Amino acid sequence: MYEHDRSASKGLMTVRQPVFVFKHVGTDGDAAQRQSQAMLGCAPAQVLFENVVKVERKPNVEAARKFGDYDVTVDTAAIPKGVELLRLPDDMEKL
Known about the structure:
The protein is α+β, with helices and mostly antiparallel strands.
């Protein structure tokens, strides 16, 4: 199970596929209230993972061996109010 496990400095554990980050920003007009909402979260994790980002094995792949064997789709219309979806490393400056 761990035969290819390396420390981060060795290079085998790099992230080459996109990383999706859900940033809770709040919905209230008042800045202090919006910050409080953002700290508590504006949507439960299961809603974000089940409804927004979908990862499915490609139909012609019998056994997935690499990230390219999956189709990743993002439904931006399903992002709840008060939540921003960031795709890293593209949106790194928005963190």
